[in-house]
Amino acid sequence: MNISTVLQSSPLQSNVLQSSQRAFPIGAPILELESISLRFGGVKALTDISFNVLEHEVRAIIGPNGAGKSSMLNVINGVYVPQEGTISLRGERLAGMTPTAAANLGISRTFQNIALFKGMSVLANIMAGRALRAHATFLEVALQLPRARREETESREAAEEIIEFLEIEHIRKTPVSRLPYGLQKRVELGRALAAEPKILLLDEPMAGMNIEEKQDMCRFILDVNDHYGTTMVLIEHDMGVVMDISDRVVVLDYGKKIGDGTPDEVRANQDVIDAYLGVAH
Amino acid sequence: MATESSEPDTFSKLLLLHARQRGERPALREKKRGIWRTVTWRELADEAAALAAALSARGVRRGAHVAFVGDNRPRLYAAMCAAHWLGAVAVPLYQDATSGEMAAPMQSADITHIFAENQEQVDKLLLILPRCPTVRCIVYDKDRGLRHYNQPELVSYDTLLQQGRELVAANGDAVEAEAATGRSEDAAFVFFTPGTTGPAKGVVLTHGALIGRARIAAATERLTDADVAMAYLPPGWIGQTLFSYVQPMVVGYCVCCPESSDTMLADMREMGPTYFLATPRVLEALFTQVSMRMEDASRLNGRLYRTGMAASRRIAASTSAGETASLSDRLTRAMSEFLIFGPLRDVLGLSKVRVAFTAGDAIAPALVNFFRTLGVNLKQLYGSTETGFFVAMQRDGQVRPDTVGQAADGVELTFTAQREILVRSPGLFREYHRDPEATAQVTNAEGWFHTGDAGYLDDDGHLRIVDRITHIGALSDGTPYAPRLLENRLKFVSAIKDAVVFGDRRDMVCALIDIDMAAVGRWADRRSIAYTGHADLASQDEVYGLVADSIKAVNAELAQDPALAASQIHRFVILHGELSAEDSVLTRTGKLRRGVIAERFRALVDAMYAGHATARVDSADAHQGTASTELKIRDATVARAHSRSAA
Fold first, then answer.
1. Which one of A71, B106, B269, B320 is most buried, counting C-beta atoms within 10 A?
2. Rounded distance, CA A257 to CA A262, Å?
3. CATH number of B473-645
């Protein structure tokens, strides 16, 4: 018998890239915020804000300076506890959130001002992001017992996968402080990814970047979303960038929500236009 | 008794031989996710068998054409093995070609199956798929970003491999039998040469021709299966495929694939290749890097380096003159070998190199000398895609930087009246794919191939290449003129990345200069010269001064040579942007497309000859639209020709 089986001729139809199809279709709400209000003394940082984040979507929070974007992220992250309102993760109400609890629930974040270990290599920084995944005790690690060694190997493999994904093989062993800003931001994204988060919070991932670096970062954000199915919540004040990569956008101004919807809806919203361009009185 | 005919004569037979003889030795290594991973000959043969079974099930037949689009990866070479296993013809393409450039080979070779590395390549291929109705299957390796693609032609490498393994498990003998049915005169490869003029032509080479050439080269260089080579140049170029597929198949040595082009230098240092192929372009880049580092080095190091280089040059000069070098030179050389050259070779990843070849284009003699002085056994190799690559090669102990060495065994050379080199050898190509007319133009009835290169044999039988026959011209006073010799001398200057000279039917030679951004940028940094980018830096008077000084030195050298004294560079312009393959002024291997360049910079060249001090050029920039830039034209200092004027 010949090794060839029946020749299957595939239909030769024209091919148009169908980018609207996603590997991870947008699902049910994963994170719901209801009537959140946050005050610092008499200053109202956030007033009665409600919105939700759907699983696998890219959700942006935008607004002019001082609109309360970072406060919002810090509330989700458990850094601030709002005076009023509730946060639910997959329908379960979260009470008394702390950053550690958030991390354990699968919420990772990056920071507006890069918060990497400057003297450590890229690889060490990314491996540090997996600290939560390691269970070996201090003694086990010190004595290099089997469990510690196994975890170290696993952690290195995971870190290398991320390094390959973010295309930073050539700087694997370089101390972070010697890298340009755009690459440091990419390393920070890598460290956040190392924790294998369900939800990734990005605080101004493109601030201070040049156009090329912004384009790279956009591509990596979309790739992470597409490849790992990670739900992304990002803050950004560069409108153009946000509109291109987000599925839905929340607009804040002076601690209040003034718009919520798809980029096209938000763009057409008169309140948003006024907040960004100013309004004649 | 072993006879000539019992030697394996196809790639699939060679693969099976290695799997039997050195099954556990490494065939390929790849750095992936930070670790070097090895594919042994047995694993390679198993993978090739499985892929072959699956490809056969998907309709690959004997004589079908299978294309490969991607970087050097073990999977690319395993797939190549699989295609040859079934008697199909492998067509490696340049991975950085645009989709438009890929369409022509696809159509002319009736490609049915394609191996593509990743999403980038798949996107390019899908774009031209409607124009290439013969393409039936695209196999992709890395699935990143491809998960939601649902074109029926797409299949992942992993799926294919899995299907193949099942087929082999069910019917292994039939699969194995298929590998033995090929004949030496079957076509093995079609290389599409990125011609410097006209569209690409498909060069058909047989198993027998390539294996025969590779055997001879391997015997000359005494290659063994302990040798290690790096695969880092585009597989679409015959040179890379020869060094990373054909020769390993003949000799059984190991090929290493770096993690990415950015990590090439570090990866090379880790693997320590013993057999190294480089293009002049790669060597120029390495040389520029060394020069830059030496300028930044401490005073002591810089001094050691310069004295060591000078001593080595004197030793080389006296050795070739048949004299004994002075004791002090030999001592200096020994000391700098220990203190500087050894460590430098180590940093460059060249410390274990036994044989290094430069091929693909003409090289400046000074560049060869530099590497040889450093202690790297760099030799020149002359050949083209049509001639099976190994036509002439320098032998150990007989290296002269201004020749390409003696003819390889089995190669006959002869010359036309215009000094065009004709080659007859068992390694010649069979034909241009589906282009009998073009084939007839370059071959004659006695089997001679017209290379299109002008050259001559010197008294010792060493071949000297002058230039492409079409580029050779004469100045208006009748002095012969060959641009490439001049350009190579200019390119050896570390501030100059590329140079294009003009002079045919003109009264003097003028040059377009493309500066090396890395080297000149660093030079400017040290002198606190502020600049915003390539165009700005290129227009600075200080940079013009730097280039003028370099050209003055080159002119002084040219003046020493009676044949070249008339070709000194009189005027020059520094271009405001890089010459690149993206603008189609260079081929994918970095050769100049003179016709395109002359057309694009016509106004500039005319202004140089008209004696103007400035000229305007229109630059079509994809990002900024069309813009007009004013470029300065400067005179260069011309040296007086010693030999004649002294008389």
1. B106
2. 15
3. 3.30.300.30
